[in-house]
Amino acid sequence: MTDPAPRHRVPTDVRTPFSTPWLTVREALTGTGAGPGDRWYYLDHPGCALVLPVTEQGEVLLVRSWRIAVRQWCVEAPAGRCEPGETPEQTARRELREETGAHGGTFRSLGSVWPSSGTSNELVHLFVAHGVRPGPAEPDPGEVLHLHPLPVRKAVAMAAGGELRDAPTALALLLAEHQGALDHGGGR
């Protein structure tokens, strides 16, 4: 059941106080726009696609990426912003090639999630891809990342145990496991 939006929380005006090629900050005015809680700021995002690439050897090709916002190396699945005119699967395939060098494979959707619905409208489309083939990575200029392959079982255990702190990656692993979309054959 979906409840209707509270009338006093429906934006009456939306402004753009800040914008870059990568993100836009929106200011939504609700009610009269004059009182406390009548101004809300959020990141307006075109969406993102993330893929769990699984090799024939039973490894998931994750990457270690330096993230300035948290000032740490983060283990993540290949992911990136959806470009205009791209489907989420096309974005996932592009990011797979750019970040890991892998390509091909059979893609399956795991669903979509809002990773931070209180501060952003970003929707992350989650995929798993089986039978990806290795190749040379083509990272974007300025990206600092390293390939970090893990056995599928170990990656799922890390997600379940809280060791993977990138929420979309951890959730994608847990969803793929729950949906039977990961092959643990061969003692992997």
Description:
The protein has helices spanning 88-100, 152-160, 167-178, and strands at 11-19, 24-30, 39-44, 48-54, 59-67, 72-76, 79-81, 106-113, 124-130, 145-151. A hairpin with a 4-residue loop joins β5 and β6. The chain is α+β, with helices and mostly antiparallel strands and 188 residues long. α2 (152-160) packs across α3 (167-178).
Q: Would you list the SSEs in sequence order as H and E?
A: EEEEEEEHEEEHH
SS element count, helices: 3
Q: Low-confidence segments, ≥5 residues, pLDDT <50? A: none
Beta-strand residue fraction: 35-45%
Spatially, the strands of the biggest sheet line up as 7-4-9-8
Whole-number average pLDDT?
88
Rg calc: 19 Å
The major beta sheet can be summarized as: 4 strands, mixed
Shape by Cα distribution: elongated
Q: What class would the helix/strand composition place it in?
A: alpha+beta
Whole-Å distance between the termini?
41 Å
Q: Roughly what percent helix?
A: 10-25%
Q: How many distinct beta strands?
A: 10
List keywords for this structure.
188 residues, alpha+beta, three-stranded antiparallel beta sheet, 3 helices
Write the layout of secondary structure elements.
Elements: E1 11-19, E2 24-30, E3 39-44, E4 48-54, E5 59-67, E6 72-76, E7 79-81, H1 88-100, E8 106-113, E9 124-130, E10 145-151, H2 152-160, H3 167-178
Parallel strand pairs: 4-9
Antiparallel strand pairs: 1-2, 2-3, 4-7, 5-6, 5-10, 8-9
